């Protein structure tokens, strides 16, 4: 059982998560290096985790499902990042760059 | 618990086979890697048999505390995924030696992706949906880059980055859905609150948050379904990934995405709730845009796999017509639109697999995917060319193929749902699509191939699969009633 913190309203967590998610989206759109794009995706996923845990504590305090959901997100994000780094490494070995603007043999 | 595990059997069988294949890979000598394909197919057959027995015993029910369902809908899709995976594995025997020492991983990852799709078809809980989605996606990301060549790794990188973004977007939508309902269950059988019951209660205060969540979910799953504007990865991956993987993605991944979208939107959000019209309109617009962009972009392609990529974007638009027309009902109160989507997906599975496997059989011998190199293919490789022609006719939607029946069925649903404008767009697009589909046919049969040699015949397994796919397309084009009835029974569980 988790207790609801009285001092901080739920909205603040939602706004924090929205800001974090937006920073992630901005990073995905503006970064050129594939590794930094992956980091930005991580920001987006962490924003979701914050949201999940906040909702779990405020709206369903008797259920742990939101917190478990966050744990699943963290685990699977780790798997995804591991794979992403492996693929980026492979691309880097093939053509000596991890700049997504230069990875353009397949287009239109 | 045991009863739940029993219903979970087919998925367990496929996952266990994947593990077995990885273990067997360590001891099977390199020239006998085809045995691993045999083992994989045996595992898939065991899963199918288990499912048949479950159906005969009438074990349809919600299980694992409502987080999964074994109902006619999931049964239909599980059979479809097993068939698709088995077909691709058998057809890839010809191609698999290119994976070198990674053949075992190829078969194991195909099985893991399939088990993820099977889970997706039955998943009734946001956590389950997310985990099965990632099981499918991560396996497919690896499969796309398995050849480790220049194009393959580029395709894998694009697929992975965009896929990870799509997952994050889906999750953001799910977080709001969870926040609104206070539970992750889409529906419950024991009367406990669920997402469906919260939405059906129709509290106006949750409307804006619901629409936010709906848009995020549609965007994220739009990536998996390959609809415009989330289609960028499709042609790249279809061109760059190994051909059997592209075949598997174009059918399996798309069908799984539509299955889960039907679950979330039809079963969860519901067509007649206060947000019903919002999502139907959203899908109608996505459908129109997908068809137009997909077909226009396909027109200018010179690579057949890229062309099939854009064609699959356009086809996704056709499926979305069914989602938009979900409120059209038959006399038996079955949703015409939803059963149309399910029926269309099944016929599309035969058709697109046939087309991709024919392309694989041909390009494995010519080492080219350029449409220009298909000149005179009707003479040079008679069976693959004939099957490719027939499948392209079905993709266009000409009789007597299954694609024709499916299009008529889904357009009829749209007319009944007062979406005449969408049907006009779709029919115009069908005319446009005939240009590029029949362009390949013209190249194969009307262009001469002076001096070009007859190609070495594909192995009997590939030829057999090709003939089976073509027969499926023809059979369901002439006598579609059993498949239509199965599709209607499948969507009746949401009624």
Query: How large is the radius of gyration of chain A?
Result: 18 Å
**End-to-end gap of chain B:** 28 Å
Report the strand count of chain A. Answer: 0
The total of helices of chain B stands at: 20
CATH class of chain A: Mainly Alpha
Number of H/I helices of chain A: 3
* Secondary structure: helix percent of chain A: over 70%
H/E element order of chain A: HHH
User: Strand order, biggest sheet of chain B?
Assistant: 1-2
What is shown here, in short?
With 108 residues, chain A is mostly helical.
Fill in the keyword field for this structure.
heterodimer; A: mainly alpha; Helix Hairpins; elongated; B: two-stranded antiparallel sheet; 20 helices; 1% strand; globular
Can you give a write-up of this model?
The complex is a heterodimer of chains A (108) and B (495). Chain A is an all-alpha fold and 108 residues long. Chain A has a single domain, classed as Helix Hairpins (Orthogonal Bundle), CATH 1.10.287.3510. Chain A has 3 helices and no strands. In chain A, helix 1 packs antiparallel against helix 2 and helix 2 packs antiparallel against helix 3. Chain A is elongated, with a radius of gyration of 18 Å. The termini of chain A are far apart. Chain B is an all-alpha fold and 495 residues long. In chain B, helix 5 runs antiparallel to helix 6, helix 9 runs parallel beside helix 12 and helix 13 runs antiparallel to helix 14. Chain B is built from 20 helices and 2 strands. Chain B has a two-stranded antiparallel sheet. Chain B has a domain of 221 residues. Classes of the chains: A mainly alpha (108), B mainly alpha (495). At the A-B interface, helix 1, helix 2 and helix 3 of A face helix 6, helix 7 and helix 10 of B.
